[in-house]
């Protein structure tokens, strides 16, 4: 292989090559030493717990090496150590044998030592306790054999070792077959330590599921109030997370489906994983309003991912478990990355609640990456590696709940703003409507007033017409009866009006009537007089509460005003005189109002017979 040009021809190349060779030799030596150096664990060192990572060795059996006797006959060179900094051997699709060499086993007592296999999801686990005399005890258990097959009622695998007290030295062989990740949290513990660990783990898991249950109940209550489908997806997603963790921690198998014939533990893991992904994608699409707020690429990607996720849910019962886990883990990582991407895009688009949304998925992505990298032996094993996803999920769900609250507050603020704008628009519309109503009412009132004027006045003279006069006169007469006050009636007729109309034309006659109306209004102005055109060239004036002298003076003033006025129409000019019949009385008979008019009319004809252009007056004391 050619040397890179940057170091070609230099002595550094020689030094680098030598260093690489030495490193490879050291690595090979180290591997060989692990292959040949099998350590024996002295049980006198066991005070609470001892990790078996430095003591356990493994072997992959070949063909024809299935029985314990064949495995026990294998030379030490076939056995190799396990990784010191990882809790995973990767995925195992067959069977792996493990061995631990022990000494000082003759001091073992009941409940003094247990083999702890700390991963609760091995399908088949066979444990053989071998003393110097041979196999002293065997255990056959695993997820596929029912929970009752476990020697100790615990979510992980715990095997008592007191039967090894028959000899000083002993060996423990155990065979594990599982299609999933082969995790190796192997240790020896005392009975007291195992109970303490189980109690502490149960307390921590109780707190976790308690938090999950409280958040579920709270969000279910909010969902019932808001009726938002995003909340439904969120609740189903939260339930899927709870089911997934219940299964991963071994509690589901211990308490809910211990009989594998009813509900397979592997199926529970697969189904909960697929449900988590499907509901998470549906929740993201609905929560962030993907189809309303994002472009075509995001919408298409979200739809494809949603369909694919729900296909995984339907395919969970039918796919091979190991292959399904690989697919769902990869798809889950892609889904979380997409959720983070959508959250960041929403954040950049200034969607208020997208910041917390993106933060939730980012934190969860970190925990998922941490978990997967530990399983792949890329990261060293952490003390709480078994619970990484639980930590991440509760933080993510809490942040999503806060993001939901932020979303609700934002939408409520938008609604309040919209309501405020609608109120402003409504107020403006009401004000505009009120103004229009006011203007329309004013116009209607003016129209009614004009209509009333038209219906009550004479169109030519501007005085009241006969019909309206009859109404007003009757009221004035009855009022005079009630008050005991006098009432004056003036009947007026234009002298020789027919001759004026015939000699000078109808236009001149109309001018005479117009001027007559104006003169009557001017003379009686300032008093509560009722002036009307009674018919043709005849007019009537009612003077309420007028004394005989006042009425006579007013009648004479009217006659003089006419006598001094000239009606002019171009070259035609003529003085117009009137005859007036006047009567004044204090009414006492409410039904005699027509007689007063007849008396005034009779006096009018008296004035005409006596030569016209005069006032005929008669004072009565009662009707």
UniProtKB/TrEMBL annotation:
Pfam families: 7TMR-DISM_7TM, 7TMR-DISMED2, GGDEF. Its EC number is 2.7.7.65. It catalyses: 2 GTP = 3',3'-c-di-GMP + 2 diphosphate. The chain crosses the membrane at residues 203-222, 234-255, 267-288, 300-318, 324-344, 356-373, 388-405. InterPro entries: 7TMR_DISM_rcpt_extracell_dom1, 7TMR_DISM_rcpt_extracell_dom2, Diguanylate_Cyclase, GGDEF_dom, Nucleotide_cyclase, Rev_trsase/Diguanyl_cyclase. The keyword Membrane applies. Keywords: Membrane, Transmembrane, Transmembrane helix. It is an enzyme of class 2 (transferase). GO terms for biological process: cell adhesion involved in single-species biofilm formation; negative regulation of bacterial-type flagellum-dependent cell motility. The keyword Protease does not apply. Residues 485-620 form the GGDEF domain. One of its GO terms (molecular function) is diguanylate cyclase activity. It comes from the Bacteria. Its cofactor is Mg(2+). PROSITE patterns: GGDEF (PS50887). One of its GO terms (cellular component) is plasma membrane. This is diguanylate cyclase.
């Amino acid at each position: 292989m050619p040397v890179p040009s940057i170091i070609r021809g230099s002595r550094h190349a020689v030094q680098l090559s030598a260093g690489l060779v030495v490193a490879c030799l050291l690595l090979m030596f180290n591997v060989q030493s692990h292959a040949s150096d099998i350590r024996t664990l002295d049980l006198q060192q066991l005070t609470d717990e001892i990790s078996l990572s430095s003591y356990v060795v493994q072997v992959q059996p070949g063909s024809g090496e299935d029985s314990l006797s064949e495995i026990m006959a294998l030379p030490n060179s076939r056995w190799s150590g396990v990784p010191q900094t990882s809790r995973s051997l990767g995925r195992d699709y067959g069977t792996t044998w493990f061995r631990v060499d022990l000494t000082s086993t003759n001091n073992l007592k009941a409940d003094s030592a247990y083999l702890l296999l700390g991963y609760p999801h091995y399908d088949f686990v066979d444990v053989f306790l071998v003393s110097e005399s041979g196999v002293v005890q065997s255990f056959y258990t695993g997820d596929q054999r029912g929970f009752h097959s476990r020697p100790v009622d615990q979510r992980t695998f715990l095997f008592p070792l007191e039967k090894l007290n028959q000899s000083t030295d002993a060996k423990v062989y155990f065979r594990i077959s599982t299609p999933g990740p082969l995790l190796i949290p192997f240790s020896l513990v005392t009975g007291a330590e195992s109970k303490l660990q189980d109690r502490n783990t149960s307390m921590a898991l109780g707190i976790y599921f308690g938090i999950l249950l409280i958040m579920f109940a709270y969000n279910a209550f909010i969902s019932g109030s808001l009726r938002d489908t995003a909340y439904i997806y969120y609740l189903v997603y939260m339930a899927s997370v709870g089911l997934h963790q219940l299964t991963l921690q071994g509690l589901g198998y211990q308490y809910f489906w211990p009989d594998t014939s009813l509900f397979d533990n592997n199926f529970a893991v697969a189904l909960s994983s697929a449900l988590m992904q499907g509901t998470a994608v549906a929740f993201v699409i609905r929560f962030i309003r993907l189809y309303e707020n994002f472009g075509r690429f995001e919408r298409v990607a979200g739809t494809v991912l949603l369909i694919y996720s729900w296909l995984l849910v339907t395919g969970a019962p039918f796919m091979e478990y190991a292959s399904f886990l690989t697919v769902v883990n990869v798809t889950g990582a892609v889904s979380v990355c997409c959720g983070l991407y959508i959250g960041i895009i929403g954040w950049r688009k200034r969607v208020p609640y997208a910041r917390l949304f993106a933060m939730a998925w980012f934190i969860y992505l970190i925990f998922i990456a941490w978990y997967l990298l530990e399983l792949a032996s890329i990261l060293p094993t952490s003390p709480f590696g078994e619970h990484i996803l639980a930590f991440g999920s509760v933080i993510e769900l809490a942040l999503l709940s806060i993001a939901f609250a932020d979303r609700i507050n934002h939408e409520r603020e938008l609604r309040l703003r919209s309501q405020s704008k609608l109120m402003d628009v409504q107020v403006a519309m009401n004000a505009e409507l009120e103004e229009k109503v006011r203007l329309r009412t004013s116009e209607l009132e003016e129209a009614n007033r004009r209509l009333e004027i038209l219906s009550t006045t004479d169109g030519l003279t501007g005085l009241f017409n006969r019909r309206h006069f009859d109404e007003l006169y009757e009221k004035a007469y009855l009022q005079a009866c009630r008050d005991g006050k006098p009432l004056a009636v003036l009947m007026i007729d234009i002298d020789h009006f027919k001759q004026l109309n015939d000699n000078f034309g109808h236009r001149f006659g109309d001018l005479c009537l117009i001027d007559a109306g104006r003169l009557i209004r001017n003379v009686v102005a300032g008093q509560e007089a009722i002036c009307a055109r009674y018919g043709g060239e005849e007019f009537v004036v009612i003077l309420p509460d007028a004394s005989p002298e006042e009425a006579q003076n007013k009648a004479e003033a009217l006659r003089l005003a006419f006598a001094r006025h000239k009606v002019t129409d171009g070259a035609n000019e003529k003085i117009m005189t009137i005859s007036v019949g006047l009567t004044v009385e204090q009414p006492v008979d409410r039904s005699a109002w027509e007689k007063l008019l007849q008396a005034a009319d009779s006096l009018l004809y008296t004035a005409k017979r006596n030569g016209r252009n005069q006032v005929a007056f008669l004072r009565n004391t009662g009707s």
